[in-house]
């Protein structure tokens, strides 16, 4: 049964009749230290203003939020997911937010948890595409120009918590699931390239994943408190086979279904099974790991204990004598970014595209901005809050130019904060 789109509903837009506040946090360092970090801190705006709030009319939680950082042509597009709906917005230069498209799944029991942007690798126009998934474990790839579901990917045995596209191969998509597995898909041919599951894989719900910018590895975190790093070299042959298959589908345009050659391939393709990560540790967090992100070769990860930890894998070299605290699962902790009111899971932070700062929300509706330059001070640069925003912040994101912070909350609202920059003299 096909899925249909409905006309976009009217969104409730709230005027800024409350007081918006951007408080500067304590620097957490002496005067000598301040001078040494002044240049780095200029990259992080300290003053922000709430310019728009849009409340979606379904009245349910917004879990997913993604800015289109994949394609320069569509850099102002933002997507949210909540209930059985995905909404695409455009960020306007004057601070407004326009609704561009709404996809409503005809299955009312669906609840979309996540979304991710890519472009259509099978057509020369490289149209913008949005992948969404959630409670039913089905991935929909939406063609935003043709207003249809272009691809449907099925295989997970339970809900999907996060989607991430490869940084420079737009056909490769990772999905993390409640069924304790991670899948790598080729969205052109609709085949599952590889499954990351087995004895050494996650032993609980997989909550978060993220590709390294080199495209050769990714990290995952889950309910088993474990963080694992996986290498795509372990499924390189399957990736190449799927790429060859995809070449036959390039520029084929059918409105309702995958071309016959693709449908046949789905039944014949043998997915690679990857059971062993190249690194795993349970030393960083003692509870669910619900957000993992690469920061260069370092990792930023969070759990339910009110902090984001910056660290790097530091396994001991096999064959060499190691101390009692070292081992194959050793981690070098470099610092922590602490906050309050965040002792529940599925609260995800965002990093600006230039990797200058991070934004994390809490249960009180506050957004905390942290400077990523230098050694973590443990204190926020500024704290954003508004009298109307008292609901749990589920996810944050930063625009392509790092001048807009976005957040989605438990009450079904999308919030936009813009940086207040000094005027040019």
Tell me the span between the first and last alpha carbons. Answer: 60 Å
Strand order of the largest sheet: 1-3-31-30-29
Shape: globular
Strand content: 35-45%
Helix content: under 10%
Low-pLDDT parts are 1-18, 26-41
The major β-sheet equals:
5 strands, antiparallel
Number of helices: 3
Write up what this structure looks like.
With 425 residues, the chain is mainly beta. Helix content is 8%, strand content 41%. The protein has helices at 31-41, 236-247, 260-268, and strands at 12-14, 20-24, 48-55, 62-67, 77-82, 85-91, 97-104, 112-119, 128-134, 139-143, 148-153, 160-165, 172-177, 182-186, 191-196, 206-211, 217-222, 227-231, 272-274, 279-281, 291-295, 298-302, 307-313, 331-338, 350-351, 357-361, 367-371, 382-386, 393-398, 404-409, 413-419. The strands form seven sheets. The chain has a five-stranded antiparallel beta sheet with strand order 1-3-31-30-29, with no helix packed on it. β29 (393-398) and β30 (404-409) form a beta hairpin. The longest helix is centred in the middle third of the chain and has 12 residues, at 236-247. Mean pLDDT is 86; it is low at 1-18 and 26-41.
Give a nutshell description of this structure.
The protein is mostly beta strands and 425 residues long.
List the helices and strands and how they pair.
Elements: E1 12-14, E2 20-24, H1 31-41, E3 48-55, E4 62-67, E5 77-82, E6 85-91, E7 97-104, E8 112-119, E9 128-134, E10 139-143, E11 148-153, E12 160-165, E13 172-177, E14 182-186, E15 191-196, E16 206-211, E17 217-222, E18 227-231, H2 236-247, H3 260-268, E19 272-274, E20 279-281, E21 291-295, E22 298-302, E23 307-313, E24 331-338, E25 350-351, E26 357-361, E27 367-371, E28 382-386, E29 393-398, E30 404-409, E31 413-419
Parallel strand pairs: 15-19
Antiparallel strand pairs: 1-3, 2-28, 3-31, 4-5, 5-6, 6-7, 8-9, 9-10, 10-11, 12-13, 13-14, 14-15, 16-17, 17-18, 18-20, 21-22, 22-23, 23-24, 25-26, 26-27, 27-28, 29-30, 30-31
């Amino acid at each position: 049964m096909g899925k249909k789109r409905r006309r976009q509903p009217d969104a409730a837009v709230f005027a800024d009749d409350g007081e918006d506040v951007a408080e500067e946090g304590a620097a957490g360092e002496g005067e000598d230290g301040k001078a040494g970090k002044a240049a780095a801190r200029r990259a992080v705006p300290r003053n922000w203003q709430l310019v728009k709030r849009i409340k979606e009319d379904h009245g349910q939680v917004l879990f997913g939020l993604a800015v289109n950082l994949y394609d320069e042509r569509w850099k102002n597009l933002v997507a949210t997911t909540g209930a059985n709906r995905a909404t695409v917005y455009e960020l306007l230069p004057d601070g407004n937010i326009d609704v561009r498209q709404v996809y409503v799944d005809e299955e009312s029991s669906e609840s979309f948890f996540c979304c991710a942007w890519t472009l259509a690798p099978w057509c020369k126009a490289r149209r913008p595409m949005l992948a969404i998934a959630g409670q039913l474990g089905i991935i929909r790839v939406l063609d935003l120009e043709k207003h249809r579901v272009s691809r449907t990917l099925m295989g997970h045995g339970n809900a999907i918590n996060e989607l991430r596209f490869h940084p420079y191969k737009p056909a490769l998509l990772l999905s993390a699931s409640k069924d304790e597995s991670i899948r790598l898909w080729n969205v052109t041919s609709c085949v599952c390239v590889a499954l990351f599951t087995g004895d050494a894989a996650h032993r609980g719900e997989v909550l978060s994943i993220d590709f390294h910018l080199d495209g050769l590895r990714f990290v995952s975190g889950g309910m088993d408190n474990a963080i694992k790093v996986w290498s795509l070299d372990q499924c390189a042959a399957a990736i190449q086979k799927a790429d060859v298959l995809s070449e036959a589908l390039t520029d084929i345009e059918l409105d309702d279904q995958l071309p016959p050659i693709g449908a046949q391939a789905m039944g014949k393709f043998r997915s690679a099974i990857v059971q062993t990560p190249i690194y795993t540790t349970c030393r960083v967090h003692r509870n669910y790991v619900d957000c993992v992100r690469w920061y260069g070769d370092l990792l930023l990860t969070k759990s339910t204990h009110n902090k984001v930890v910056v660290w790097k894998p530091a396994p001991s070299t096999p064959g060499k004598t190691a101390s009692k605290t070292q081992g194959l699962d050793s981690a070098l902790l470099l610092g922590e970014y602490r906050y309050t009111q965040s002792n529940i899971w599925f609260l995800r932070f965002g990093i600006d595209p230039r990797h200058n700062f991070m934004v994390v929300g809490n249960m009180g509706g506050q957004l905390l901005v942290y400077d990523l330059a230098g050694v973590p001070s443990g204190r926020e640069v500024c704290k954003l809050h508004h009298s109307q925003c008292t609901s749990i912040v589920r996810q944050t994101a930063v625009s392509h130019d790092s001048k807009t912070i976005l957040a989605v909350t438990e009450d079904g609202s999308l919030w936009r904060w813009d940086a207040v920059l000094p005027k040019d003299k």
